[in-house]
Amino acid sequence: MSAASAADEFFRRHPLQRVESPSRGLSFVLHLFGLASYAYSFAYLVLNPNPVNDSYGWHFQYLTILGLSLATGTFIMGLIADITLSPRIFAYKNALSVASTPMEVVISILYWGLRLIDERLVLPTWAPPIATTADLSFHLIPSLLLTLDLLLFSPPYSITFLPTSLLSLAIAFGYWFWVELCFSHNGFYPYPIFAQLSTPWRVVLFAGSAAVFTGSTEGLKGVYGWVNGRGIEEVGVDGRGEVKKGQ
C-alpha cells in the first residue's frame, strides 16, 4: 500500500474504529436516524406546550434539553462529515462527542434512577404526562445512539482523568448557576428534586453528578477498548486521537 493510500485509509478509518467513518454507508444512516429522533423530541416540546414554554430559559432549563442540543450538534457534524468525507469535520464531531456522549449517559442514569425511586422527583405535577415515545426519545435514545456512534464509528477518547474531572465539574456547576438564574425569574425549578433539597444537599447532588459524568467517560473508554479488542495504549494514540509516529 502506498503512503498516500495509507494516509487516506487512516483518515477514513482510525486503526481502532470498528466501522469506517465518515462514510456514506452505516455512519450516514446512524446520524440521519439520530437527527430524525432529535427533531421529533424538539417538535414534541412545541406541539405539547406546558408552562415552561412561556418561562425564562424555555425548556433549556432542563439538563435533558441541553444534552439533546449538544447531541444534535454532534450528529449534525457527523452527518456533514459523512456527506463530505471531511476529516476536519469528522474531528469536530469527535470533539463534541467527548462532552455529549457522557452527558447523555449521565442524563439517562439520573433520570431513570430518580424516576424509579419516585417519579415526582423529576416530573413536576403541574406538567401534563409525557408520552412514552417522547420519554424514550428524550431520556434514552440519545445516550444509546451516541454510545453506538462512539463504539463503532469514532476513534477512542484520549482525554485523561484530570481534564475529564474538570470538564464534568464545569458542566455540573455551570448548570446549577443556570438553574438558579432561571429560578430567580420563574419562581420554580425545572426538576422538583431541586426544590426539595437545601443548598448543601444541592452541592452534593451536583458534585455527585460530576462524579457520575467522570465515571461515565472513563467507563466509555473502557468499553471502547473492550469492544474494539485493543487498548488505546497498545497503538499509541496521541491527544488528538491520532496514532503517534513510530507506532
From TrEMBL:
It comes from the Eukaryota. Keywords: Membrane, Transmembrane, Transmembrane helix. GO terms for cellular component: endomembrane system; membrane. It is found in: Endomembrane system. The chain crosses the membrane at residues 28-47, 59-83, 95-114, 159-178. It is a multi-pass membrane protein. This is Integral membrane protein.
